[in-house]
């Protein structure tokens, strides 16, 4: 008699009808799946995109809600699967903590996922730094491409918050040098990470890696990674990392975790390879965009849906009472404040208006409940959303797991029965770059317009001269405001989006617009979360403890 599956991972694989030959296990609870996997009964699952209002520095539980929604949908009988990003160790040891959900709405094994997982992020860092090493070796060994050392734009990377590496000098080991200024970015901000998430398959990843701009030659022409003949080796390093990872929730629901670009710097979405695989495995796929809709949510629609054909059928916007208090101008930790919540609703309304601008007219607001939410505050939110004609579902997945997301699951399933929304792009790809920025600023952020710094104008001229401007735009800005100034909470009015620089992420195939003060290498707080992490014996075995 055939053995019954015993582990949660085995049960998930059986539920998804995955051919055992397409599975590579990392222990009993993590597996990599062949991205070319063709299930025996392939479906084309409908996408649910989970986004949020502008968060507080502590976050509003968007990943927790997304995981809880997968559990709730599975409880309701849907063949649901999650397709989420994997965590970076930088924030884990900094202030924000990990990204595996929380309470009873988590993916497991949480500690392994938060730390090294299957090594994907390390592979991204290795591929990135191979290119960095080859660039400096090329300069050392004669520089046949006539690459200008002062105009090398490709940085180095490390998956850690380390502000000391924002500006360094390299080339000091030999007299031949050449010495030049250098910088590090956190691995989640690497263009290689963006390539991993935008590529459709390994061949496309190799092509994109070859098109990365590493700098300029002495004539001001772009120099590409393929000219250094190293993009094949980079693709080889990434080959295993291009396969999505399967884990489960505490309730045993299947969740794919793959890719981890930050949404305030890059596109903030999981990989296109993973999303398509999830759609072949499940009838309903729950994915997310990092931070508020102005960042990861909009980028999912503008970058992923536009170029990869993976458009959401339903959009869920997570809100919390504490974030509404914050955007109403008070410290959310001071307790109930209905007046602040009423004022803070302007921020949520700004995101709902942006959703309508891209064609999402029927979002669901998931009100993520916290213990100190007062009934008066909840009534304030319910009444305002009812007046706007926006559906609202209160969730308690942190404390109750999938059971606490039953109302949200019901509303999502009802909308999945309706026609998918049309999502017309808010700008054409062949529009002038300034017009693309203007459209995003005015229609998504509610700004009155844009302002390009002298450096940004020089960048714009260079990108045009290179012929690389017919790309979508990826904003890099603070996640704490609808503007480029994190101090402007709520819903800023009459602000100007200040564009301080433009970068051609030619491998990712978008233009990065740096807005306001934005850092691609975070720093640690005065008391980093790493101080709480340790190992100890638990039930006779060594275990990691203290992860947030």
What name does CATH use for the topology of the domain at 433-515? Answer: Formyltetrahydrofolate synthetase, domain 3
Beta-strand share of residues: 15-25%
The mean pLDDT is 94
Under the CATH scheme, the architecture of the domain at 433-515 is Roll
Question: What is the helix content?
Answer: 25-40%
| The CATH fourth-level homologous superfamily of the domain at 433-515 | Formyltetrahydrofolate synthetase, domain 3
Can you identify the CATH class of the domain at 433-515?
Alpha Beta
The total beta strand count reads: 25
* Structure annotation, total helices: 17
Query: Which term fits the overall shape?
Result: globular
Radius of gyration of CA atoms, rounded to a whole number: 23 Å
Largest sheet: 12 strands, mixed
Overview of this protein structure:
With 548 residues, the chain is an alpha/beta fold. It contains 17 helices and 25 strands. The protein has a domain of 83 residues: Formyltetrahydrofolate synthetase, domain 3, CATH 3.10.410.10. Strands 1, 2, 3, 4, 5, 6, 14, 15, 16, 17, 18 and 19 form a twelve-stranded mixed beta sheet that branches.
Features:
single chain; 548 residues; alpha/beta; Formyltetrahydrofolate synthetase, domain 3; twelve-stranded mixed β-sheet; four-stranded mixed β-sheet; 34% helix; 21% strand
